[in-house]
Structures are given as structure tokens and as C-alpha cells.
Inverse folding.
């Protein structure tokens, strides 16, 4: 077993990773090489307000370990990661899921002072319901806390009931509504998790 491989559970199956990703999935830093695939997912997941490539390029220029420096020589304020289908889980007959190597989720945070913001988070339809979104929220909260944040904020479309339920299950509380925040005039619900 390699050091990156999760330890097996009592029944011999690999355990989830430290953030709760199911076996067969890997969380890794996002790179500029991931942008084209992420953009394709953006267009499907967020058709009214998908980010353009230059948004991701600018965000990735501000990433790095909390103790390091970003591309501009400043302490990094961003962290972006992707969830990749690594391999099929041992013993699974999961032929309808994403192909190995495919990005199935992505997200990013910004940490300034003691407040962190979820800049974006998404899970492709073929991987939803597998714990990918929950694992992304866990890494974001852990990384935000490691960088000194005491709270993690996000905005979500008022109509996105499934996401709002997921966020609530992971400790986010609704603070207020920002009227007509999204393109098309939809309201945003502002949520916060105390770290």
C-alpha cells in the first residue's frame, strides 16, 4: 500500500480519505492545465454565471501553501483544488460513473484575515450523491482554519435547495438574502460556518 492510499477498513476495503472522499477519488491542487475541463463543467453547472478562463487564471496566480508566496511574491490568499476520479473502487461495478482521470468536482477559497470565502464549488452530475461535495466542504473548512480563518462564508442561489441542505448539514447557517445578486436577477442566500 502506498503512503497516499487510504488504510483498509476492517473488511479489507479502503477507507475514505482524510476529507471523506470515497475510495477511487483523489483531491489535488488545481493547475492551469485543469482550466479547460473545469470550464466545460462550469458551463453545465452554472450556465448563467460560469466563470471565464481568465478568472481561474487570476485566482490560481494567488494560490500556494499558507506559509509560502503566490506568483506575485505575496502570502497566498487562495486555494483551489479538484477532485479527480482516480481509479475504480476495488470490488465496485461502477461502470456508470466518471472515467478515471476525469475531474468530477472543483472548488476554491479565499482567506483574508479571519474570514474565508468559498469562491466556487461544484460537483458534476455523474458524481453527485457520492460524498464529493461534502468532502470539498470539509477540505475548505480545514484549509481555511489552517490559514487562520474563524469563519467560512458562501453565497448560494436561493433556488438551489439541494446545495442549501448540504451546506446546512455541514454547519453553515443562513445569515441573510442578497437581492438580485446573480445574473438573471436571482437572490443569493449568504451562509456562514463558524470554524
Amino acid at each position: 500500500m502506498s503512503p497516499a492510499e487510504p488504510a483498509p477498513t476492517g473488511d479489507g476495503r479502503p477507507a475514505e480519505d482524510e476529507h471523506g472522499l470515497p475510495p477511487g477519488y483523489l483531491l489535488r491542487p488545481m493547475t492551469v492545465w485543469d482550466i479547460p475541463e473545469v470550464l466545460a463543467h462550469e458551463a453545465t453547472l452554472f450556465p448563467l454565471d460560469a466563470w471565464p478562463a481568465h478568472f481561474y487564471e487570476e485566482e490560481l496566480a494567488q494560490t500556494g501553501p499558507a506559509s509560502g508566496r503566490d506568483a506575485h511574491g505575496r502570502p497566498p490568499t487562495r486555494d483551489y483544488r479538484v477532485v479527480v476520479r482516480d481509479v475504480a473502487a476495488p470490488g465496485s461495478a461502477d461502470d456508470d460513473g466518471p472515467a478515471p482521470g476525469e475531474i468530477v468536482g472543483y472548488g476554491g477559497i479565499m482567506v483574508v484575515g479571519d474570514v474565508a470565502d468559498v469562491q466556487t464549488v461544484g460537483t458534476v452530475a455523474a458524481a453527485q450523491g457520492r460524498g464529493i461535495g461534502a468532502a470539498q466542504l470539509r477540505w475548505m473548512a480545514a484549509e481555511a482554519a489552517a490559514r487562520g480563518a474563524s469563519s467560512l462564508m458562501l453565497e448560494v442561489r436561493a433556488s438551489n435547495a439541494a446545495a442549501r441542505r448540504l451546506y446546512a448539514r455541514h454547519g453553515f447557517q443562513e445569515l441573510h438574502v442578497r437581492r438580485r445578486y446573480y445574473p438573471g436577477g436571482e437572490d443569493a442566500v449568504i451562509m456562514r460556518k463558524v470554524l
Remarks:
- Residues 1-14 have pLDDT under 50 and may be disordered.
- The longest strand covers residues 103-112.
- Residues 12 and 153 are 38 Å apart (CA to CA).
